[in-house]
């Protein structure tokens, strides 16, 4: 075997190997694309049917959980017709979504309840301080109170209203 024949054979083998590597890479990228392992717009990992069912269940559960929390119903994802009629992937997504939606609304409700409580406390403190100031013939000035100055926004708003009501009530009561 001479040098040129050996060179030609080695070149053919190298060319065939490069061809096989190229075809293999192209084939796997088609398989990769068909498998759907890219990220879609809403952050879910792939686009398989099961994954779509789980995603649909999640969003349905999220909405149902929010509705139940808003209507002050007890936490029960099994109560939904959609949950009972769904397959395993849908139910799994529904349960996660329901839990998240219910939690979101309950936390907001608890935060609002705390704010309302602070406003109510401010109102009664202001009511008493307004009556005292009117009784002692002081001028109308809710910001003169230490409680008002130290309170947060909700407390101050309640204090202002309570102070005005208390001051007015005592002033009107004295006229009788």
Spell out the blueprint of helices and strands:
Layout: H1 3-35, H2 49-70, H3 81-85, H4 88-135, H5 146-150, H6 153-175
Helix pairs in contact: 2-4, 4-6
Task: Describe the overall structure.
The protein is mainly α and 176 residues long. It has one domain. Helix content is 77%, strand content 0%. The protein is built from six helices and no strands. Helix 2 packs parallel to helix 4 (88-135) and helix 4 (88-135) packs parallel to helix 6 (153-175). The longest helix has 48 residues, at 88-135. It is elongated and about 125 Å long. Residues 30-39 have low confidence and may be disordered.
Keywords:
single chain; mainly alpha
Give the termini separation. Answer: 130 Å
Give the fraction of residues assigned to helices. over 70%
H-E string: HHHHHH
Mass-distribution shape? elongated
Q: What is the domain total for the residues?
A: 1
Sum this structure up briefly.
By secondary structure, this protein is mostly helical. The protein is 77% helix and 0% strand.
């Amino acid at each position: 075997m001479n040098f040129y024949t050996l060179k030609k054979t080695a070149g053919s083998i190298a060319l065939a190997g490069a061809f096989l590597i190229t075809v293999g890479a192209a084939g796997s990228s088609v398989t990769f694309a068909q498998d759907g392992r890219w990220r879609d717009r809403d952050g879910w990992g792939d686009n398989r049917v099961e994954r779509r069912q789980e995603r649909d269940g999640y969003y349905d559960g999220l909405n149902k959980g929010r509705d139940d929390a808003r209507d002050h119903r007890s936490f029960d994802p099994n109560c939904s017709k959609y949950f009972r009629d769904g397959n395993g992937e849908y139910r799994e997504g529904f349960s996660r979504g329901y839990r998240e939606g219910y939690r979101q609304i309950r936390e907001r409700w608890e935060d609002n309840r705390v704010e309302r409580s602070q406003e109510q406390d401010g109102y009664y403190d202001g009511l008493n301080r307004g009556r005292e100031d009117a009784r002692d013939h002081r001028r109308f000035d809710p910001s003169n109170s230490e409680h008002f100055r130290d309170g947060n926004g909700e407390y101050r708003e309640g204090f202002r209203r309570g102070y005005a009501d208390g001051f007015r009530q005592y002033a009107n009561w004295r006229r009788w």
